[in-house]
Amino acid sequence: MLPSQSLGLRGLALLLALAAAGCATRPDPDDAEGLAEFRETNDPFEPANRAMFEVHEVADRYVLQPVAEAYRDILPQPIRSGIRNVLGNLRAPVILANDLLQGNIPRARITLGRFMVNSTLGVGGLLDVAREWGVPGHSEDFGQTLAVWGAGEGFYMFVPLFGPSSPRDLGGQAVDLAINPLSWLGQGLIVDAAGWTQLGLTVVDTREALLEPIDQVRATSLDPYSTLRSAYRQRRAFEIRNQESPGGNVVGPSGVTGFGQGVTAPGGPDAAPPPAR
């Protein structure tokens, strides 16, 4: 089992733990405004989610953020861009599978064409030649596929290190890990090393892309938890409709809840976050 698969299973275990945790107090039935807000936020386990958010914040401030800052300071932009391009290219088979599962043949053609061009002329994906030719990428995941098939998102949840999510998206992540061709390579020292390297670079690359947006949320929002919750749910709604989110890339790139696999969303690290709720 690749390390990313193991983490996916742990995420599902955390989902069960979260479901068993304390629930938010449901407003009085006569409080129409309170009930509407309760349904809108879709966060019945808010006390437990906020506790998990605080755990995540400690890990982020003392581990993830310093590592991401060192990564930016040590590696020049061209090298970081090359790594990001490779990570995005490695995810292309998963994106293609979800394009096809959604019956979106035009986007599947784009994904396949980009993968072939960038894997060859782009030297294994180091260069995003397809984007230079006017064919930008997009991201799809099985959580989006489930939404297209009519599955509801379920309740909002926050998983430390993974970030904002939902049962649909966390379950979709497990399926994406299973259909990733890299997970079919079996086991062994080289395979395990490749899996850990891809996972580590994905985490660091994504966190580096979010240095400015996360700092801005912390500095300007009275309640960062609510801001990230709102941003995540808005972003996912736009992604399911295959639209660009006007709010920028605040809670992580497309592909995996929390820290994504390849930064493909528009805006990047300089995108402004949506207003706090």
Strand content: under 5%
What series of H and E elements makes up the topology?
A: HHHHHHHHEEHHHH
Cα(first) to Cα(last) distance is 41 Å
DSSP strand tally: 2
Rg from alpha-carbon coordinates: 19 Å
Spatial order of the strands in the main sheet?
1-2
The helix content, as a percent range, equals 55-70%
Q: Spans with pLDDT under 50 lasting ≥5 residues?
A: 251-277
Principal-axes geometry comes out as globular
Note the main sheet: 2 strands, antiparallel
Structural class comes to mainly alpha
Residue-averaged pLDDT: 80
Separate helix tally: 12
Describe this structure in words.
By secondary structure, this protein is mainly alpha-helical. The chain contains 12 helices and 2 strands; from the N terminus they run ααααααααββαααα. Strand 1 and strand 2 form a beta hairpin. Helix 5 runs antiparallel to helix 6 (105-120).
Write the layout of secondary structure elements.
Elements: H1 3-19, H2 32-41, H3 46-74, H4 77-90, H5 92-101, H6 105-120, H7 129-132, H8 142-148, E1 157-159, E2 163-165, H9 167-179, H10 189-209, H11 211-220, H12 224-240
Antiparallel strand pairs: 1-2
Helix pairs in contact: 1-9, 3-10, 4-10, 5-6, 8-9
